[in-house]
């Protein structure tokens, strides 16, 4: 990895002045908050979070409280993308469960306020980690962070989605084939170059997709930087960025979470190639065993398929970022670099397939 591609956490952590393309009238937002947020007191100040590639996210500082505003980006959007109303709905439903989510305040689908639909939630104070090797923590504290993430995703997959009013949040069964179709279309809509590995991967996945009717709530983007951790305990206190959540296959969701164990830092902030024992980080096998223990499973069938599938899926997501760079609406200053990783993800996914086929 050359110097210009090195991951720099400081470019993702904290806030900054609102980017020109993501500005909106704060007086309109303040008026809306006075009418819709109980106990609100102005005036407000608005900062934009540095991290995130999809929906622009802001910290709104009021006279007596701090909020987070998350909105659709401006400009031309891919079909079904940036569904802030779905994010608001699932977090609101999960508030009554043991899955950690921020306190929800309000959803606004009126574009006249900030230019696009948005929602407001509580600002949660805690740790957000962008580098999975956790260099900011001593070795003895790292295992607890990974165990906390494992517990959080197991809790999500055990939620009775019908009991919390989400039986219509997606279509049960046949999740993987529908996802391959969806992300292939999204990828083609954003395609900026021909990636042979992606084309081969799409063809192979369609031919080898397992049939499974198992259905749970899934997050869809369950990775370390989409969580806030307690400032003094190894505990997840808020899971963020529910844009890709739906009813789906829990093994696919968990495989996405475990994907960094198969990816190096030159591909996508991965753990592959590091001495995990020396770092105090559990191995892939340990993480899988812990998840099985927490969810009552004995095995994780089709595990390598789900890993390859998620590399394809992430490559399609990153290609979408490249598409937004082309349109001038990407949310992150590092979007161009992140989008360029789509090719590496596709090649990594195809390498998983080749290794799997050699073992057969």
Describe the protein in words:
42% of the residues lie in helices and 11% in strands. The chain folds into two domains: 3-122, Phosphorylase Kinase, domain 1, CATH 3.30.200.20; 139-359, Aminoglycoside phosphotransferase (APH), C-terminal lobe (Aminoglycoside 3'-phosphotransferase, Chain: A, domain 2, Alpha-Beta Complex), CATH 3.90.1200.10. The longest helix is centred in the last third of the chain and has 25 residues, at 303-327. Helix 6 (196-208) crosses helix 13 (342-359) and helix 11 (303-327) packs antiparallel against helix 13 (342-359). Strand 8 (227-229) and strand 9 (236-239) form a beta hairpin. It is globular and about 65 Å long. The protein is of the alpha+beta class. The strands form three sheets. The chain has a six-stranded antiparallel β-sheet with strand order 1-2-3-4-6-5. The chain has a two-stranded antiparallel sheet with strand order 7-10. The protein is built from 13 helices and ten strands. It has helices at 26-36, 84-94, 111-114, 139-157, 175-190, 196-208, 250-258, 265-268, 276-279, 284-295, 303-327, 335-340, 342-359; strands at residues 15-16, 45-49, 57-61, 66-71, 104-108, 118-122, 216-218, 227-229, 236-239, 246-248. The two termini are 32 Å apart.
């Amino acid at each position: 990895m050359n110097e210009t591609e090195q991951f720099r956490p400081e470019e993702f952590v904290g806030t900054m002045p609102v980017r020109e393309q993501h500005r909106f009238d704060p007086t309109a937002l303040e008026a809306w908050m006075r009418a819709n947020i109980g106990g609100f007191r102005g005036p407000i100040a608005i900062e934009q979070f540095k991290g995130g590639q999809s929906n622009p996210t802001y910290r709104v500082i009021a006279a007596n409280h701090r909020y987070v505003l998350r909105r659709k980006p401006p400009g031309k959007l891919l079909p079904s993308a940036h569904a802030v109303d779905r994010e608001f709905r699932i977090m609101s439903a999960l508030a009554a469960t043991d899955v950690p989510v921020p306190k929800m305040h309000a959803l606004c689908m009126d574009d006249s306020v900030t230019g696009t639909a948005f929602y407001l939630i509580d600002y949660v104070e805690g740790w957000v980690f962008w580098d999975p090797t956790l260099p900011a923590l001593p070795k003895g504290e790292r295992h607890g962070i990974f165990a906390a993430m494992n517990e959080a995703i197991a809790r999500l997959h055990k939620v009775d989605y019908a009991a919390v009013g989400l039986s219509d949040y997606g279509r049960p069964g046949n999740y993987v084939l529908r996802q391959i179709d969806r992300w292939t279309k999204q990828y083609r809509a954003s395609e900026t170059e021909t990636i042979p590995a992606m084309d081969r991967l799409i063809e192979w996945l369609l031919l080898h997709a397992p049939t499974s009717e198992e259905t749970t709530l899934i997050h869809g983007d369950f990775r370390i930087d989409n969580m806030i951790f307690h400032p003094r305990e190894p505990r997840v206190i808020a899971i963020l960025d529910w844009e890709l959540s739906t009813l789906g296959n829990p093994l696919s969701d968990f495989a996405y979470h475990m994907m960094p164990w198969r990816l190096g830092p030159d591909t996508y902030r991965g753990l592959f190639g590091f001495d995990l024992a020396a770092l105090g980080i559990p191995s892939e096998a340990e993480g899988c065993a812990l998840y099985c223990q927490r969810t009552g499973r004995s095995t994780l069938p089709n595990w390598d398929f789900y890993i390859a599938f998620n590399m394809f899926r992430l490559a399609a997501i990153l290609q979408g970022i490249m598409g937004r760079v082309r349109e001038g609406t990407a949310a992150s200053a590092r979007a161009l670099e992140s989008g360029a990783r789509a090719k590496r993800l596709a090649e990594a996914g195809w390498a998983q397939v080749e290794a799997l086929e050699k073992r057969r």
